[in-house]
Write a structure and sequence with these properties.
The chain has helices at about 10-15, 20-30, 50-65, 80-95, 105-115, 130-135, 160-165, 200-215, 235-245, 260-270, 280-285, 290-300, 315-325, 385-390; strands at about 35-40, 45, 70-75, 95-100, 120-125, 145, 155-160, 180-185, 195-200, 225, 250, 275, 305-310, 330, 340-345, 345-350. With about 400 residues, the protein is α/β, with parallel strands linked by helices. Helix 2 (about 20-30) runs parallel beside helix 9 (about 235-245), helix 3 (about 50-65) packs across helix 4 (about 80-95) and helix 11 (about 280-285) packs across helix 13.
Length: about 400
């Protein structure tokens, strides 16, 4: 079985579990719980059968348009069904999702990530076109832009829903990705220079979420709230993949602020797992007093069994105040980096894989039963796509 850098020993072929792909993750949950609600928003609901079928249709539509295995497609979206459908569609096709921080709005910064990842398309929404349309200039590889808010023919923007509707779900009964194929490229914030891409394999993501679930100990009966942006690995792993891996219900809100929309969704769907970043817990800790505190504790958070904090250090005072007043423990999630990787010698490696003689731009999975924090491969600052496609002949 070829790895992301093109080499694989016979030992690798024996140790890599073929089920360690995002496709198998969703397929297995759909087989177990076809009619159970997988994802719900304020206005939409998807059971596991509908979600999987939508991803298959989108995969067929991408392929019919010309997106091939190994191609990259950027996702510049707020939380919503379209993000999940597009991500799993690309995974099923064997293409690479590039989740982009939608707070990046400068065309030159967007252009860098689109060019560096070799993106051939972008799935987005109207509010982000202001930066994306000028960013695509001088990017000949970037051929398509799809928007969840409808088409704009004069700008070359196509409606994503109609695009997906045209796909043939039966064309993708089985996924085309292998466990050690690259599933996503995540970019760092670039606060100390240009953003750096991190290449994550299917197996990396699946083993990471399995380790997360072993730590949390939740089941398919739990309800998980996603208010943090899905482009960030914390939300994608601890919320989206964890929920879909379990066969649980994922409650999705497009943004953290304002809080009332997601508080209402929490109460309506009886959320049992709440994940947030430290500033959210700091704000909640200040509000847990008087009438507001009673409402938070006995209505909005009444079914919450565990809170998880990540993407930054949680102040001890915040943890103590929240825990005492709400009666709910906060579990810190180890590792808060935007790319969930480890840095070695100026390169970045994805967690969850054993190291070795790995070339820049390569991701290899060694069949570990859980993430170990080892090297997955080197990711340099430029030309990720060339390194991924020009495979090591060894």
């Amino acid at each position: 079985m070829p790895s992301a850098n093109g080499s694989a020993s016979k030992a690798d072929a024996r140790t890599i579990d073929p089920r360690l792909t995002l496709n198998a993750l969703l397929d297995e949950s759909e087989a177990r719980f076809p009619n159970r609600i997988a994802l719900v928003t304020a206005g939409q609901s998807f059971d596991y059968t509908r979600l999987r079928e939508r991803a298959r249709k989108a995969a067929a539509a991408f392929r019919a348009r010309g997106v091939r295995k190994g191609d990259s497609v950027a996702l510049v979206l707020r939380n919503g069904p379209e993000f999940v459908v597009a991500y799993f569609a690309l995974a099923r096709l064997g293409a690479v999702a590039v989740p982009v921080n939608f707070l990046v709005t400068k065309p030159e910064e967007l252009r860098f990530m689109l060019e560096d990842s070799g993106a051939v398309g972008v799935v987005t929404q109207r509010e982000f076109l202001k930066g994306l349309l000028p960013a695509r200039k001088n990017l000949p590889r970037l051929r398509w832009i799809w928007s969840r808010d409808g088409d704009q023919p004069e700008c070359g923007v196509e409606d994503f829903a109609r695009f997906v509707d045209a796909g043939d779900a039966e064309a993708f009964a089985q996924g085309e990705a292998a466990p050690d194929d690259v599933a996503a490229i995540l970019y760092t914030s670039g606060t100390t220079g240009l953003p750096k891409g991190v290449m994550l394999s299917h197996a990396n993501m699946v083993t990471d979420v399995d380790a997360c679930l072993r730590l949390i100990g939740f089941t398919e009966r739990d309800v998980i709230l996603c208010i943090l942006p899905m482009f960030h690995t914390f939300a994608w792993t601890a919320n989206v993949l964890a929920s879909l891996r379990l066969g649980a219900k994922l409650v999705v809100c497009p943004a953290v602020a304002p809080p009332m929309p997601w508080l209402k969704l929490m109460a309506k769907h009886r959320v049992t797992l709440f994940t947030a970043v430290p500033p959210v817990y700091t704000l909640l800790a200040k509000e847990v007093k008087g009438f507001k505190g009673l409402a938070l504790k006995h209505w909005f958070f009444r079914r919450v069994k565990l809170c998880v904090s990540g993407a930054g250090p949680l102040p001890p005072d915040t943890a103590d105040t929240f825990g005492e007043r709400m009666g709910i423990p906060i579990t810190p999630r180890a590792g808060g980096d935007a790319a969930a990787g480890h840095r070695r010698g100026g390169t970045r490696a994805a967690a969850g894989h054993r190291g070795g003689d790995l070339r820049p731009g390569a991701v290899r999975h060694a069949g570990l039963p859980r993430p170990s924090g080892g090297d997955a491969g080197h990711v340099h600052e430029r030309r990720l796509v060339q390194d991924r496609r020009h495979r090591d002949p060894r």
